[in-house]
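User: Okay, second chain of the day. Same drill as before: sequence in, structure tokens out.
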Amino acid sequence: MTEPEQQHSHQFERGTDGPRVILVGVDGSDSSFRAAAYAGGLARRQHALLAVVYVQPMLVAGASLGAPVAETTDEVAEDLVAHIREATERVKGIFEVRWEFHTFRGDPFNGLRKAADDLKADAVVVGASEQAGHRFVGSVAIRLVKAGRWPVTVVP
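Assistant: Same drill. Structure tokens below.
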């Protein structure tokens, strides 16, 4: 075996037998729920695990003023899990999807990047940004695509 072949044989390999983990970022927005529905369909057809990820923002300004930031973001996570469970119950027996819910803390880009790496995601699905300022600064989706580490699907 040549040196590059030896190095490659020990690395995580993506895409050889179809995706095993499809990661979708959710934040409670309409576009993130559309992305979750799309990713759920992909996961079902590919028999992949759907990793639903919510990145809890680190609201430093709110925390410094004494606002209960962690409680607020925990409530959002609980609401998202309840919404996902409700949706999976509605289609139970018709469409079966294996899914897990994960929370990470930080800014959305770094949280999703870390989640995709930690969960060994084969693909990342996100909703299109609904914030006007992202046309100038760059959305999370664009930053994920530019990272070039996973196939990224942006759902409008």
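The chain is about 45% helix and 20% strand.

User: Thanks, on to the next one.
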